[in-house]
Amino acid sequence: MPRTEELGGIPRKQLNIFYVLDTSGSMDGVPIATLNRTMSETISSVKQLVEKTADALVKISVLLFNSSCQWVQPKGAERLEDFIWEDVKAGGMTEMGLALKELNSKMSRKGFIESDIGSYLPVIIIMTDGRPTDEPDEALEEIKKNKWFTKAVKIGFALGPCADVNLLEKIVQDSEAVIKTDSLETFARLFKKATVNSIVMQGQSRTTADVVTGKGIVNEIMGGDGDDPYGFSDDDDLFGLGDDSDVFEFGDDSEYGYD
Amino acid sequence: MEGKFKKGKQIQTINGKTVVVEEWLAEGGQGDIYRILYGGEEKALKWYKLGKMGKTPKAFYENLKNNVLKGAPSDAFLWPLDITSWEENSFGYIMDLRPEEYHEMTEFMLAKVRFKSYRIAVDAALNIVNAYRILHNQGYSYQDLNDGNFFINPENGKVLICDNDNVAPDNVETGMLGKPRYMAPEIVKGKGKIKPNYYSDLFSMSVIIFILFCLNHPLEGKRFLVPALTPARQEVLYGTKPLFIMDEDDKSNGPDPVIHRNSILVWECLPGYMKDIFLKAFSQTAMEKPGTRPREKDWLDVLVRFRNDIVRCRCGNDVFVSEEGPCTCEKCGKKLHIPYRVQFDSYSIPAFPGNRIYRVQLGICDEAKVLACIAGMGVSKKDPSILRLVNLSSKSWNVTNREGKLVKIRPQEAIRIKDGINLEISTEIGTETVKIIRNDAAK
After folding, report:
1. Does residue A164 fall inside a structural domain?
2. Of B41, B75, B95, the domain-final residue
């Protein structure tokens, strides 16, 4: 028999969580400090959670945007266990279109969703406290062609009265998947919950056959009836064979096909 | 993170006792776990989140209350001991705290904790199957069997089963469907219309056993390696077209040499009877017809045999010893010294220190006695080259040697293991005969 120490861990699908965070000038002061503490606490909480989950290998990618945008880990998504949040500063404009363009460029297997084992549908948590200072429509139309993006579980956070709620609703493609709050304390609490629930939902025992959605997670964390974190999916196996989308290219998929 | 209750919070139970919250321990999918004082003793409290008490919380509460009154099926269950009154539209139940030496099954799956030996992994599987057999035979089903239900001691394979909140009389709905990847195909395909029951428990249990041994999910072969595991793909993999990673007829979901290395390594070492039961449990027939799935007794029969067929070489390696004769350790190359075997009705096991005869190997038996040790094998203290069989049962054995001489072996007494010995072992039902044979005379 093989020795027990010869065996490695069970193969796990990757669960990519993309944070897209507004660090523009209007976030300066208490808001950016709150964001720093929230990210730091969220990561530390979910580390304990994922240490013992065999359902998925959780990876984190953080995109910060202001007058420009930058990935916290430019080389690719980082395992949550290894991720350490380093405080960021606020300043500059709110170039949301630029952020969407950058997100689009990395939401692929050649980008940050690279994995031999494959992935669950990614999670995108996007936060802004203002209105875009660029024209994001074109970037939004472009990213909607990316199936990783359209099929992702998306949650928006509109922080403060100046946040462009309409734009967030368009990005997350569901008006009920956007959390609007003027309270930094509420933001901190719900942001953490959104991350935790995004991870837990993947492997949680279920009472319905429906699938996890951003709206479901928002309902859950907003203290809805809590029994409906899943919504109906019109998933028609878009990730299947013969898909020749440039952005969503699967190479040698055919050998795994069943159709 | 922390739960809603602060230290010192008091809650009443239906038995008139008071729970005093000491510390928040963890958050689960359904609720928070606290360390509490209950009648002065340290226990755990699981407090439900709103909306996490099934579809009809009142019925969920009543079912749990009935389980409390009924008591644990066996000591392998971390069973609800008491239940609180309703408070702010929720409630909790009290159970024992998990002892420190027990680890979550997921820690084994991630290879963060390892069994002391392969044989201990088999012991863990035996304990799991036996616990579910007792539960099922009392007319209950578990309904949400998954990798989050078990605490296992890596040193001895003892198991504690937690999350017993969905246990209900078989075919009674709790509103629970189960955890993705562990639900039986009919539940996945049923999309909420077909509810878990005894047969779906059997499927989920087979998944757990395969994972314990092979550290791979039995349905996650090459087909699992799709770039995006969408809900639609999951439905195919686990519901409409499930295919065993080791299926002998259809290799399209076979193991990838790198990603599924664990299952390749283990599978080639498994004895034929273990492969057979896995092939049966995950055959297309068993996936489609729940009634054809191996029962717990089928699993116990092969697992006790498997346990005894794994012997420890002096180099520390666990070696599977077949009936086919001399056996060599694949790690150090040395031949294992196994002069005798213990012959049952249809198969034999090597006579080797540490091996046992379980009650289940001696014909029909009482539920609670399945894994009772009837005999143990060890070496003589005076002369370690002498192998002995100790009577660990409560009844005397009639033992006849090759010359026909009859002796009585009382409980705790031992005989030297020699060729040609016949043991008549009395059970609560009758008498079973077991023979000692030379290793080269085995079937």
Report:
1. yes
2. B95
Q: Cβ of B266 and A224 within 8 Å? A: no
Q: What is the pLDDT of residues B187-235, one digit of tens each?
A: 999 988 899 999 999 999 999 999 999 999 999 999 999 999 999 999 9
Q: With an 8 Å Cβ cutoff, are B29 and A204 in contact?
A: yes
pLDDT at B258 (0 to 100): 96
Look at chain A and report how many structural domains it folds into.
1
Range of the domain at A88: 11-256
Q: Which residues in chain B are closer than 8 Å to A255, comparing Cβ atoms?
A: 222
User: In this complex, is the C-beta atom of B107 within 8 Å of any C-beta atom belonging to chain A?
Assistant: yes
Q: Does B264 touch chain A (CB under 8 A)?
A: no
Give B335-353 pLDDT, tens digit per residue: 888 889 999 988 999 999 9
Whether B128 and B199 share a structural domain:
yes
Query: Largest Cα–Cα distance in chain A?
Result: 64
Compare CB distances from A209 to B114, B192, B228 and report the shortest one's residue: B192
Contact A4 B310 (CB under 8 A): no
> Does B31 contact A at CB distance below 8 Å?
no
pLDDT averaged over every residue in chain B: 92
Q: State which of B48, B65, B95 marks the end of a domain.
A: B95
- Number of domains within chain B: 3
Domain span holding position B189: 103-294
CB contact under 8 A, A250 and B227: yes
| Per-residue confidence (pLDDT) for residue A40, from 0 to 100 | 95
Residue type, B36: I
**Residue B437's pLDDT band (cuts 50, 70, 90):** very high
pLDDT tens digits, one per residue of B392-428: 999 999 999 888 899 999 999 999 999 999 999 988 8
Per-residue confidence at B1, pLDDT binned at 50, 70, 90?
low
Same domain, B333 and B399: yes
Tell me if A54 and B110 make a contact (CB, 8 A cut-off).
Answer: yes
Please check whether residue B171 lies inside any domain of the structure. Answer: yes
Q: What is the CATH number of the domain that holds A210?
A: 3.40.50.410
Interface test with B, best of A202, A207, A243 (most B CBs within 10 A): A207
Q: Give the C-alpha separation, B293 to B283, whole Å.
A: 9
* Confidence grade of residue A4 (pLDDT, cut at 50, 70, 90): confident
| Residue of B120, B215, B243, B266 to mutate for A, most A C-beta atoms under 10 A | B215
Mark whether B281 and B347 lie in a shared domain.
no
Q: Is residue B132 part of a domain?
A: yes
On chain B, the residues whose CB falls within 8 A of the CB of A237 are 230, 232-233
A1 occurs within a structural domain: no
